[in-house]
Amino acid sequence: PPIRKLAKDLNVNNVTVVNAYHVLEQEGLVYKKMGSGTYVSPDLLAYAYEEQGISDNLGSLSFIEQGQIQIQKNTINFASATPMSELFPVDDFKQALNEVLDRDRGHAFDYQESQGYFPLREALIKYVQEYNIFANVESIQIISGAQQGIDIIAKALLNYDDAVIIESPSYTGAIASFKSRGAQIVDVKLLDDGIDIEDLDRKIRIFKPKFLYLMPNFQNPTGISYSRDKKDKIIDLCKQHGIYIVEDDYLSDLNFYSRDNTTLKSLDINNELVIYVKSFSKIFMPGLRLGFLIAPSVFYEHLLFAKHSSDISTSGLLQRALEIYFTRGTWKEHIEYMGEKYRDVFNLMLKNIEKHMPPEVDFIYPQGGVNFWFKLPEGISSRNLYEEAIKENVAIAPGNLFFVHQNDDRHFRLSIASVNDDEIERGIIIISNIVKDLIRGKNDKEVGKEVYRPIL
């Protein structure tokens, strides 16, 4: 209803209704039409039905990806990209927490300013310098994990029916965030060296997006890393068209064989083009839900408002502990440790794929990260593979989860984040045998088909 009418009906001030509508718009529940009024987002109901329409098994799989359901102890978990808990730096972080409590006493539990604990933001300036990113303390926004970072970017920048360009395939959480804002999601195919530049240029001209959402290093789910040439071209293209980039630095820390894991943010010399999103969940501890954004100054206030409306501020105790952890430089040792551990697991995974996976299955050779992306032969469904693998206590991620329209049925992702050496070999053998059976069954059906030919 119109602002004045609703204010009169509820016996409140007009400003109260304006503020309420603004909050609803920030949450993606309504959208405004200039000179017309405020409307409920029509995509919301359709999106809810779409989500409910996913089969029980695949719906559960999406929850596995978000870490929201338990996997049985005897399940080999290739579905989740969450690291093994035994790799977390528990003792170091416990020491940092105790030091914060001894030093700050009750103040450790105070609310922090929404932008984040100032000493932590100062420490992060030095941290990102290791990656050739040069920021100032005002450009850093502390977030409760990468997913919240994507959410508040969507709230701050997107209005109903704005276009966003993403990679195809892409991260499921980002797709969900953009859908919740009523955005028009435009996907561009990934090639072996990154996004298809020609198609990207064409779609930028057609759709004029608010921003691009990209993971240029060890992309999730494919593991693809962009070439340096392609990264430079993306920066030039976005400068030319005045388009912003949201860079999700998913796992550039786990670089095993890549010649170049340069971030797009490090190429954004004047901090005017790229909003950089970094989470510590994959490298340190998922339960911390800590990360940060580095944004151009034009977005400071918008992001701060979206952050405040989401959860006011991130845990002050955890921010203070993380500041000590970074100030001491302990994080460098841990990243080196994680790199060594996962390099061994990564190599073992490659060895078993090459040894056991049927030649009819294609896969991308990643150069780092924790994900492997596979393509099944024509006529073989990753949903069927998922269902059969679950019966054998092996969890995989069907590829359709990572596409906007969920209509791709031939790809699947395996992650090494939560599996040990023994599970890798056993799991790959089980998956390979299921794929062989599915191929054999498909061939048997084709042989058994009746063929009708014209009488000549």
Brief sketch in words of this structure:
This protein has about 450 residues and is an alpha/beta fold. About 45% of the residues lie in helices and about 15% in strands. The protein has three domains: about 5-40, no CATH class; about 55-85 and about 335-440, Aspartate Aminotransferase, domain 1 (Alpha-Beta Complex); about 115-315, Aspartate Aminotransferase, domain 2, CATH 3.40.640.
Number of domains: 3
Number of discrete helical segments: 16
The CATH architecture of the largest domain is: 3-Layer(aba) Sandwich
Mean pLDDT: 87
In percent terms, what proportion of residues is strand? 5-15%
Roughly how many Å apart are the termini? 72 Å
Strand order of the largest sheet: 4-11-10-9-8-5-6-7
Q: Helix/strand/pairing class, anyone?
A: alpha/beta
Task: From the alpha carbons, calculate the radius of gyration and give it in angstroms.
Answer: 24 Å
Topology:
Layout: H1 3-10, H2 14-26, E1 30-33, E2 37-40, H3 43-52, H4 56-65, E3 76-77, H5 90-104, H6 118-129, E4 140-143, H7 146-157, E5 163-168, H8 172-180, E6 184-191, E7 194-195, H9 197-207, E8 211-214, H10 228-241, E9 244-248, H11 264-267, E10 274-279, E11 291-294, H12 300-311, H13 316-327, H14 330-356, E12 362-363, E13 371-375, H15 382-391, E14 394-395, E15 397-398, E16 411-415, H16 421-448
Parallel strand pairs: 3-14, 5-6, 5-8, 8-9, 9-10
Antiparallel strand pairs: 1-2, 4-11, 6-7, 10-11, 12-13, 13-16, 15-16
Helix pairs in contact: 1-2, 5-13, 6-13, 7-8, 7-12, 9-10, 14-16, 15-16
